[in-house]
Amino acid sequence: MARKKQQDKHPTETIYPSEIVDIETLKPWPTNYNDHSSAQVAMLENSLSSFGQFKNVVTWGDTIVAGHGLVEAAKGRGWKRIEVKRLPASFTESMVEGVLIADNRLAQLSTPDDEKLASMLQRVRQE
């Protein structure tokens, strides 16, 4: 029954508006449990250099909920602004932490297809 209630919270599409903010105004979520190694941040910097920002940072006010590594990488590249999606001010701290946990864990729970990845990497490298 609890699962049904959770699903009913947003029965239609819930899309948060994007905005561009001064990157220096953003601060990390104080209990973010994911660390980003210097190697990972370097990869994110390379991605930003190659492709630009194609994923949003998620914030609650000026606090980063998702995208800590991306913000760190953008700062490392000397960026002054970044695109964010702000969660509603009406969210509770528990709801925000639920978003943070879901963002981190849902990606980790996927199962990569190594053959498809190898094929894709080969195509990308050839170009």
Task: Decide which structural class fits the backbone.
Answer: alpha/beta
Strand order of the largest sheet: 1-5-3-4-2
Number of helical regions: 5
Strand content: 15-25%
Mean pLDDT: 91
Q: What fraction, in percent, of the residue positions are helical? A: 40-55%
Low-confidence runs of at least 5 consecutive residues: none
Tell how many strands the DSSP assignment holds. 5
Instruction: Tell me about the largest β-sheet.
Output: 5 strands, mixed
How many whole angstroms does the radius of gyration measure? 17 Å
**Euclidean distance between termini CA atoms:** 51 Å
Q: Sketch the topology as an H/E string, one letter per element.
A: HEEHEEHEHH
Outline type = globular
Structure in words:
This protein is α/β, with parallel strands linked by helices and 127 residues long. Helix content is 46%, strand content 17%. The protein is built from 5 helices and 5 strands, in the order αββαββαβαα. It has a 5-stranded mixed beta sheet. β3 and β4 form a beta hairpin. α2 packs across α3. The chain is globular. The chain starts with a helix and ends with a helix.
